[in-house]
Structure to design on (596 residues):
């Protein structure tokens, strides 16, 4: 779906590149794009939309090279739901979704028919003839999603789609995101600060910081790679020398009643068995602790300080 | 509680659509229709047009009706059939037109800025050039469409009632339509340039009026201080009035071809450049 190698994007006025050395390949699925403000998420989306030409490296989106002259055609195959409002306040939902459909290349009559269908899909069937200025936040977010889907894109970029929504609205929006991928086969890139949202829908994750990829891969794979916390229990209490030697494996975050909460220096749990055998300790329990996504994110962004954050 | 569709069928073929600039212009036209300001201006322009047509008919009656023969000498002095009369067909309308262009054109770009829809347009297969062409095209097509009846209806009526010897020249459209095209482009460029500098449609109206009246005042000030008549080439109101005079070959137009062309090119170039710069994709928005 998307692949780039050593991608660098530099703004004309900036001394440092906004994106540097990005190498990544993403399969069709739901990709969560995480990172703090200024990490380069928006720049990456602009580059993927073909609005910014790479200053070095390159890549392809849906088989079209980044920055190529045919990037305008590429934008007809991509849907984009911006984070900001971007709604035409004096138009009805139906009028503006049909308008965006026409701008994407649909014939006028087809765009009007399609606007009805897609507004029904996002649950705005009954409200479609009302000006959007009277819509609730949830309805406005759904209009934005509808305009991104009106032309049946192969890939859709959703920038903070659950911003400002209550828990029920968030759940409904995330259900729609899941349906977009599951029923329409559309690839989704979901940029969000709400880790719970990404955790719920994404099957791949990219963590960006300071224009660089800190971690990327499938959610399960990332968890495995970054999950270094284990709980250990030994048959006999460790003596002082053994406890001191335990530090060879990683940082001991907590120990009580013979139970050690350990963060391994390497994501290599079998190393614990080798250590126990070498130290003559009988290990009776090794429990991997499944990190939550926010712990994964923190560890990727701040590897040096994450060990004390338990 | 929203009701969701069971599924979404695939979209039709994407390659059947119209050019993006045309889609944008049609949407602006629909928006203008919704705003309903056409009623006021429609009435005002209709009144002006009726007066024009009445004058032509009265002149025809004076020329042909024996009972009115004593008034003919007087009428000939008042209702000239010369170049001035042809150019004057557009005069009153063009004053009112500046206000229409300000009211409609002032919001053309500013409204997209306010609603932040322009970056989203550029995330579609729309280039900044498409956007600029659409806005300039619409802002110029509006005065052209308004002035078209002022050229064609008196001409057609004159032909119908008096044939080739009516008060409006048979060749008048060939001379006036190019003039209308130039002054429409001038009005459109100024409206779009001013609107591109505004953050809201209301501010856009102010910007258009400010630019038009401001440059006119500046031109008069420079002329007053230096005595340099060519300074009036900066005056967009005067430029718009001059082009019909030049095309119909009036003896004493407000200014000559060269200063009119220079001033018009300056305004169109400057405000198109401003609009182009202000509507480029922003690096900070998407």
């Amino acid at each position: 779906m998307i692949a780039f190698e050593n991608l660098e994007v530099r703004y004309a006025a900036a001394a440092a590149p906004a994106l540097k050395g990005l190498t990544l390949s993403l399969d069709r699925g739901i990709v969560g794009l995480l990172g703090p403000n200024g990490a380069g998420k928006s720049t990456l989306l602009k580059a993927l939309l073909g609005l910014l030409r790479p200053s070095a490296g390159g890549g392809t989106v849906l088989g079209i090279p980044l920055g190529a002259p045919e990037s305008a055609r590429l934008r007809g195959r991509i849907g984009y739901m911006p984070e900001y409002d971007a709604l035409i306040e004096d138009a009805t939902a139906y009028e503006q979704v049909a308008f965006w459909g026409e701008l994407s290349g649909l014939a006028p009559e087809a765009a009007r028919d399609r606007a009805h269908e897609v507004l029904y899909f996002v649950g705005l069937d009954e409200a479609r003839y009302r000006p959007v200025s009277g819509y609730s936040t949830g309805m406005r977010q759904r209009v934005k999603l509808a305009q991104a889907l009106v032309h049946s894109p192969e890939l859709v970029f959703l920038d903070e789609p659950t911003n400002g929504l209550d828990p029920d609205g968030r759940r409904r929006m995330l259900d729609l995101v899941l349906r977009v991928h599951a029923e329409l086969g559309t690839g989704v890139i979901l940029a969000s600060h709400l880790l719970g949202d990404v955790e719920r829908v994404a099957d791949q994750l990219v963590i960006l910081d300071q224009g660089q990829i800190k971690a990327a891969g499938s959610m399960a794979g990332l968890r495995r790679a970054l999950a270094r916390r284990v709980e250990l229990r030994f048959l006999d209490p460790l003596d002082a020398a053994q406890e001191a030697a335990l530090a060879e494996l990683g940082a001991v975050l907590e120990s009580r009643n013979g139970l050690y909460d350990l963060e391994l220096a390497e994501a290599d749990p079998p190393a614990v068995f080798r250590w126990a055998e070498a130290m003559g300790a009988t290990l009776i329990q090794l429990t991997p602790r499944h990190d939550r996504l926010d712990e994964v994110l923190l560890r990727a962004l701040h590897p040096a300080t994450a060990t004390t954050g338990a | 509680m929203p009701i969701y569709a069971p599924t979404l069928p695939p979209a039709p073929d994407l390659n059947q659509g119209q050019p993006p600039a045309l889609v944008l212009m049609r949407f602006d036209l629909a928006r203008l229709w919704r705003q309903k300001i056409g009623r006021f201006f429609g009435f005002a322009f209709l009144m002006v047009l009726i007066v024009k047509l009445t004058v032509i008919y009265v002149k025809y009656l004076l020329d042909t009706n024996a009972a009115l023969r004593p008034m003919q000498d007087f009428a000939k002095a008042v209702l000239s059939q010369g170049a001035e009369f042809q150019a004057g067909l557009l005069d009153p309308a063009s004053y009112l037109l500046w206000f229409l262009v300000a009211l409609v054109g002032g919001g053309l770009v500013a409204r997209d800025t306010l609603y932040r829809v322009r970056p989203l347009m550029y995330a579609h297969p729309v280039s900044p050039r498409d956007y600029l062409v659409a806005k300039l095209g619409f802002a110029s097509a509006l005065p052209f469409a308004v002035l078209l009846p002022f050229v064609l209806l008196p001409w057609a009526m004159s032909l119908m009632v008096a044939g080739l010897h009516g008060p409006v020249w048979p060749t008048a459209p060939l001379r006036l339509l190019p003039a209308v095209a130039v002054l429409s482009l001038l009005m459109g460029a100024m409206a779009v340039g001013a609107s591109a500098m505004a953050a809201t449609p209301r501010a856009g109206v102010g910007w258009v009026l400010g630019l038009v009246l401001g440059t006119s005042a500046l031109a008069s000030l420079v002329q007053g201080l230096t005595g340099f008549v060519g300074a009036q080439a900066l005056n967009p109101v005067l430029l718009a009035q001059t082009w019909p005079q030049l095309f119909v070959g009036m003896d004493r137009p407000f200014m000559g071809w060269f200063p009119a062309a220079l001033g018009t090119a300056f305004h169109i170039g400057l405000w198109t450049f401003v609009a182009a710069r202000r509507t480029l994709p922003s690096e900070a928005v998407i």
Q: What stands out?
A: Chain A is about 35% helix and 25% strand. The two ends of chain A are 36 Å apart (CA to CA). The domain at 2-223 of chain A is CATH 3.40.50.300 (Rossmann fold).
